[in-house]
Specification:
By secondary structure, the chain is an all-alpha fold. It has 2 helices and no strands. 0% of the residues are buried.
């Protein structure tokens, strides 16, 4: 029974490790995806800043073009902030899931420890009962053996008395 509980504990441990590995790998994938997207945003940002610089250098930048580029730049900055916030939210959710998984593992471990302690106490009680029954049975067997020896002695005494009585007749 103890091996079963230990096996169950190992299964729970490996399940928890598997869940942690799954969350880590999905987090890594999201992180790589975020990095790739941020690089493309940075390239677009550089492209727009270069265009804006060219407009300034060449003095072609009419007010319309400057406003358009600043709007695009603001949109890109907002998109970059959005990705940063999404990354923070993902980390928060991952930490929440890890905490909840940890509490489940701790609760299962406590329940398992309680069950193991209960089984240990029952086994100890059973051992005491078996030992006591063994002692009682041994005492009873000894008592019965003594009584059998007494009866055999009495039978021998009766046989010898009967033989003596027959010889007298």
């Amino acid at each position: 029974m103890k091996k079963f509980f230990m096996s169950l504990l190992w299964v729970l441990l490996f399940t928890a490790l598997g869940a942690m590995y799954y969350y880590q790998t999905t987090f890594d994938k999201r992180l790589v995806n975020t990095i790739e997207r941020s690089k493309s945003i940075e390239e677009r940002y550089r492209e727009y800043t270069d265009k804006q610089h060219d407009f300034d250098v060449l003095l072609i930048g009419h007010r319309k073009h400057i406003n358009q580029n600043s709007q695009k730049l603001s949109a890109l900055q907002d998109e970059l902030k959005q990705f940063k916030n999404q990354h923070s939210n993902d980390l928060f959710l991952i930490n929440m899931r890890i905490d909840s998984l940890s509490s489940v593992v701790v609760a299962n471990q406590a329940a398992l420890r309680s069950r193991i302690d209960d089984v240990d106490s029952k086994v100890t009680s059973l051992r005491r009962t078996v030992t006591q029954n063994n002692i009682t049975a041994t005492q009873q067997l000894t008592s019965i053996s003594r009584e059998i020896e007494k009866l055999q002695g009495q039978i021998l005494a009766l046989d010898s008395t009967t033989v003596k009585v027959k010889q007298r007749r």
